[in-house]
């Protein structure tokens, strides 16, 4: 923890080892703080990573079992920066398979969604994107100006292509109008980007006016050649979407946003906001817009048949990041998400002297009369044998998390194994083997607390926190259950539009997204012949009524059966995605990697599926107006309590890995007084 200066370090207790808790602990233990902070992290169960945790199947080929599909986007600057530092800190080990974070990722250069046609059929809509200069994590100068410049590039490309496909002859004058208006708008955008903060206000109104003229011209355009209907319509939607977004950014002060301007935009649902700024109904309800809703599970109650709900301001801030990426637009993992992210962070934390306590379930926060957190009650799920608990296993040189506790390291290992106990389940029948631990501030156990437990679980453990702002935050938060299915295939899917896709928007049912995660197979341990493809499927999971009490131990199994049934239904309807595997007669079950003794649909039983139904596993929604009740990481309402998670008011306010990292760093900054810069902070143009 640094040199002994005779000054007692500040004791910080981090509750929760998801991405936000790891980021907070990583920053608090940064050597530049000179050992000022003594950090202890408490985590339920046997692994770290939260919603991004993964586990290696100890029964089958050490295959990767995920909570769901995870990718990094090329604007995840804080995530890349933290992980790059972690990998650098571990680089001295010559045995590391992935010396850098870039080695652990695979660049992905396309955006794909499924689009239903008028005749009911489904066609892929794939947008190929270039690799851009720079790399995420290095800091982007003037990110808001860069986003405007990128948006203008999208408008120009799609408008130009639209004109190229417009009917010749009578439309020549109309094409000239589009080009001339586009040229004017480009000049206005360039002037805005170069203007001083004082000069931006004067230039915004003419820019918005020019955009509206361009919008009218684009919307009046008509296709030329027969047979261009699909490509033409998609170009028009993309141009119209980009122009409406630019108009809204200009009129609602979202080019260089303030908290006030984002809050005002957040009073509108995103589709309504697009329509308010002139987008065609066809655009607002298009597959490309629907894909955004699917990506953030924006369906209250998990029902994809009801309109989605997401704040416009938060959606636009995130879209600005998406279009101003550096390097590739997105990155996939070469092995499990937890192996790529949580494992190296854990190793660095241990290297720095951070204490990580596994099998510690946070049960209650108890405040004092002076507005601080006085004590924390922690249930001890299991105790380690002499020598402590070492959580990682080695899989082909990769430090990895197992999919269950390493029973031989635990006093209660045999009982846990024989009872098939899931220590991460809210509905577990397991009874703690020892009395709870009570941490006390007045006894010197901690000075500050970082609460990095997801908001869905806070209602159960923070019932004694009654500050009005805290209660408003809980009342204003919403979460949704999700589901995922993983299948390992022994042949190709037949997808022909680009390689190894990430596809969303296949909204025939609640499982609507497919990630080709085949990159992980070489880092699993299959006997020959190994699978050729691994697919992760996901979507929201409908909730009918309130969740049962913890005593209903059968509930997780029943919900898992629902997911399994939905997964099989997806496979039987996957022909538009997987034409080589699914026909009018349904899915070819022999394509699944499974024991030779199984046949037909029974081969599905050898795959993996899960229902994210635990309070802490549910995805955080960003419903209209919900950001106004969120709390900033350094403003919990309790003097020594700091908040970390993508459920806080961290700026973008959509659920994502980057948001969790940003929030964790912000919580740490509020404690240290020596703040680490938050990259791409939407309210800081520096």
From TrEMBL:
- One Pfam entry for this protein is NAD_binding_8
Q: Which residues cross the membrane?
A: none
Instruction: Name any one GO molecular function.
Output: oxidoreductase activity
User: Hey, what's the signal peptide range on this chain?
Assistant: none
Q: Which domain of life is it from?
A: Bacteria
Query: Start and end of every Amine oxidase domain?
Result: 601-671
**What is the protein name given in its UniProt record?**
Flavin-dependent amine oxidoreductase
Organism from which the protein derives: Bradyrhizobium macuxiense
């Amino acid at each position: 923890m640094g040199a002994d200066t005779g000054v007692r370090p500040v004791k910080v207790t981090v509750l929760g080892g998801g991405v936000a808790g790891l980021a907070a602990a990583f920053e608090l233990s940064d050597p530049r703080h000179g050992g000022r902070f003594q950090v202890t992290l408490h985590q339920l169960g046997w692994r770290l990573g939260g919603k991004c945790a993964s586990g290696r199947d100890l029964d089958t080929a050490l295959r990767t079992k995920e909570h769901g599909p995870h990718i990094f986007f090329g604007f995840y600057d804080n995530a890349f920066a933290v992980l790059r530092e972690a990998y650098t800190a571990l680089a001295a080990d010559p045995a590391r398979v992935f010396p850098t974070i870039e080695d652990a990722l695979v660049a992905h250069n396309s955006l794909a969604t499924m689009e239903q046609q008028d005749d009911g059929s489904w066609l892929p809509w794939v947008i190929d994107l270039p690799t851009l200069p720079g790399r995420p994590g290095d800091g982007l100068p003037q990110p808001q100006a860069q986003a405007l410049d990128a948006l203008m590039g999208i408008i120009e490309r799609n408008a130009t292509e639209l004109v190229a496909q417009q009917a010749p002859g009578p439309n020549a004058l109309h094409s000239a109008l589009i080009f001339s208006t586009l040229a004017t708008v480009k000049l206005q955008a360039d002037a805005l980007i170069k203007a001083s903060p004082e000069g931006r206000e004067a230039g915004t109104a003419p820019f918005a006016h020019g955009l509206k003229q361009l919008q009218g011209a684009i919307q009046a355009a008509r296709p030329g050649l027969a047979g261009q209907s699909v490509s033409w319509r998609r170009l028009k939607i993309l141009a119209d979407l980009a122009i409406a977004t630019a108009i809204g950014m200009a009129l609602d002060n979202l080019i260089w946003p303030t908290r006030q301007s984002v809050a005002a935009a957040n009073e509108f649902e995103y589709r309504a906001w697009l329509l308010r700024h002139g987008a065609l109904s066809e655009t607002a309800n298009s597959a490309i817009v629907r894909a955004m809703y699917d990506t953030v599970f924006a369906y209250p109650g998990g029902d994809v048949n009801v309109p989605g709900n997401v704040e416009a301001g938060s959606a636009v801030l995130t879209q600005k990041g998406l279009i101003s990426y550096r390097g590739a637009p997105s990155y996939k993992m070469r092995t499990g998400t937890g192996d790529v992210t949580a494992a190296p962070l854990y190793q660095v934390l241990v290297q720095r002297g951070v204490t990580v306590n596994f099998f510690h379930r946070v049960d209650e926060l108890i405040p004092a009369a002076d507005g601080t957190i006085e004590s924390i009650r922690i249930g001890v799920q299991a105790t380690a044998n002499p020598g402590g608990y070492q959580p990682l296993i080695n899989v082909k040189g990769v430090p990895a998390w197992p999919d269950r506790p390493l029973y031989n390291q635990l006093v209660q290992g045999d009982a846990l194994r024989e009872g098939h106990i899931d220590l991460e389940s809210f509905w577990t029948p397991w009874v703690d083997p020892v009395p709870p631990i009570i941490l006390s501030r007045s006894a010197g156990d901690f000075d500050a607390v970082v609460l990095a437990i997801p908001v869905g679980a806070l209602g159960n453990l923070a019932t004694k926190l009654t500050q009005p702002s805290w209660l408003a935050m809980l009342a204003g938060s919403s979460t949704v259950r999700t589901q995922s299915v993983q299948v390992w295939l022994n042949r190709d899917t037949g997808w022909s539009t680009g390689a190894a896709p990430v596809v969303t928007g296949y909204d025939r049912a609640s499982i609507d997204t497919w990630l080709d995660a085949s990159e992980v197979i070489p880092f699993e341990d299959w006997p020959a012949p190994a699978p050729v493809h691994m697919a992760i499927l996901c979507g929201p999971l409908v909730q009918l009524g309130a969740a049962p009490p913890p005593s209903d131990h059968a509930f997780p199994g029943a919900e898992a059966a629902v997911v399994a049934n939905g997964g099989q239904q997806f496979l039987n309807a996957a022909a538009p995605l997987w034409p080589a595997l699914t026909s009018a007669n349904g899915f070819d079950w022999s394509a699944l990697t499974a024991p030779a003794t199984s046949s037909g649909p029974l081969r599905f039983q050898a795959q993996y599926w899960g229902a994210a139904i635990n309070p802490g596993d549910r995805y955080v929604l960003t419903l209209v107006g919900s950001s106004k009740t969120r709390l900033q990481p350094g403003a919990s309402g309790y003097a020594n309590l700091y908040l970390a998670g993508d459920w806080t008011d961290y700026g973008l306010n959509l659920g994502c890995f980057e948001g969790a990292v940003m929030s964790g760093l912000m919580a740490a900054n509020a404690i240290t007084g020596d703040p680490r810069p938050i990259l791409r902070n939407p309210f800081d143009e520096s």
